[in-house]
Amino acid sequence: RELSEMDAEDERDLAEMEELKKTERSCLEILKKYDFTEWELMEWSEQQAVFNFLYDSVTLTVVFGPPADGEFFAARPSRSIISLDFESFLDEEQAPPSSCLVQRLLFQFIESRGSWQEKCPTLHYLPQALFDISLVVNRCKILGEELEFLERWGAKFHLLETDVKNTEVKLVFSSSVAFAKFELSLTLSHEYPSAALPFSVQTHIGNIREKEIAAVLSAVPVGHHYLQRIVFSIHQNLLQGPR
């Protein structure tokens, strides 16, 4: 008798596990309907879901609560969400400055949204939250690639130095042809590249000052590869000959 009871319990456990797997599969199908993803699902259990972003350097843990009344997700009663916790695993001392900047901007976005649990009280809201985070991650990743490009190829555009501190990028230009050397400091935010960047200029040699640079920057439209296009435009318009 005890054996049959144990068998029945095992069967119930197996049936529950199969149901969980089905739920996970249907949840993933819904999540993947969004245009693109910058997350990787590491765990989906009865208790929580764990997502990784940015080459496993940021983790989002979503802790589930009881079913939400009258709401469905993946054809099952939707679960309430107790908490969404973001954690960074980036070693800032070892990571390149561009990676540190990308992380700072992502966490700037995360903090700017206030309470994620209030915005995402049930599973029903999770795909939109993942989509919003993915958008910012995608833009920040492209910015990181732009910085790496400028560090590698900047000399071609009279860019002597690219320095990252907190959320500020300092670009030092030097051109013997234009008899000019100056620093351009740009303040970045998680809205990059959809908003113009606040900037300041420090002139070391020559006549290129804030007024001349402001005129060039105002002609560069925001959008894809904004930082690179700023550098190209300064090189093209200010550093080709004497001013």
From TrEMBL:
Secretion signal, residue range per the UniProt entry: none
Domain Knl1 C-terminal RWD residues, every copy: 10-144
Coiled coil (UniProt feature): none
Gene Ontology cellular component list: nucleus
CDD domains registered for this protein in UniProt: DRWD-C_Knl1, DRWD-N_Knl1
GO biological process, one term: protein localization to kinetochore
Name the record gives this protein: KNL1 protein
Species the sequence originates in: Chaetorhynchus papuensis
Gene name of this polypeptide: Knl1_0
